[in-house]
């Protein structure tokens, strides 16, 4: 790897690290934000969901924009927007300012993430070097999330506004060095047409679908409105498909979905993210509300999952070279399944030594699953559609996270009912844990369907 390529990788990894710590730090700082701004529970929840809505709703549009306008241009522009609105979040004095900042920051991430992943393919040739770069990139994302848990606790103890200002400093550094280090063979000219009608229909469908998912966290409230939101999303999805079929320059070339590897990667990413984020939500509630741990203690407990930052770049590429992507991803799902199964034994007398094997297994599962899923999503896809393929898999991750969180919330609330005893709350968390367990099992089945065909490590033609 040349010095320039290494520098480009550092910048791209810095951006995905930035996204990881941004999400994790906010989760830890929410109580301090509510105490300072006097936000209601509904508004506080909306601060989290606003980011997901912006991210998921604009992800595919961001991937296509990278293909049309140039990956480097879109990446740097989105990074600048991320910097500006993260700063606005730190200056927020009212709830609406925070909601606006989080929504636009999520939208900026939706453009920055697929462009960044596509730039990996533009700066590294296909094969072992690109696979290693993707592994480092993926492990950096998870390391950012793990370290963000601790950083969020430390910064929130000083002032929650630093949770927003710290990413501003890092983004400014990346913007200063990025233009000199990143290369893009398609930079300099705008090519192709922009399917604006398809973009509006798709973004609207994604936003409404994501909003509907967040409403499922409280299934008994406003059922009619929730159904109406999903119905409107379905109408826009249908409109999008019709628009794309008739368009001469579609936002999403529907033929890309004929790739079996791409479909498996997206379903696998959705189920893996759903199980991971659902489990983390349950573990956080269990540690803090039932065992009485502080947020910092909870953060340090979850840090064991960050072992993937060490394992992924060292071990995973070797396993992929020997066994192929599909088998490695399947092993990741099986480890996750073991993690959730072991955690079903949680009780009031549990020590960290008892739960540590689950945290370690989940970290190993993430190391084996995340990077190879990303490789399979773009493997065999034409280079001018790598941004689209990256957008698809990142959309699957975001929607999977939203589905997992809303699923465990809905099941847990249903099982708890009006009960308030610690025993009832523990039992509701155990039942809710079946959602990540089922998602991991389904993910393993999805990946197993690829064992008898072409392995994800080899190129798969797209009809």
Describe this structure in words.
The protein has helices at 3-37, 41-69, 71-91, 95-123, 128-158, 162-181, 196-215, 223-246, 260-290, 295-302, 308-314, 316-323, 325-343, 352-378, 386-416, 422-432, 434-448. The radius of gyration is 21 Å and the shape is globular. α15 runs antiparallel to α17 (434-448). It has 17 helices and no strands. The protein is mostly helical and 463 residues long. This is MFS family permease. Residues 8-455 form the Major facilitator superfamily (MFS) profile domain. It is found in: Cell membrane. Pfam families: MFS_1.
Instruction: Output mean pLDDT.
Output: 81
Largest sheet entry: none
- Work out the helix count: 17
Give the N-terminus to C-terminus distance in angstroms: 33 Å
The number of E-state strands comes to 0
State the CATH superfamily name of the largest domain.
MFS general substrate transporter like domains
Overall radius of gyration: 21 Å
> Which geometry do the CA atoms define?
globular
Low-confidence stretches: 455-463
What is the top-level CATH class of the largest domain?
Mainly Alpha
Q: Share of helix among residues?
A: over 70%
Tell me the number of structural domains.
Answer: 3
CATH topology of the largest domain: Growth Hormone, Chain: A
How are helices and strands ordered from N to C? HHHHHHHHHHHHHHHHH
The proportion of residues in beta strands is under 5%
Helix/strand structural class: mainly alpha
Second rung of CATH, namely the architecture of the largest domain: Up-down Bundle
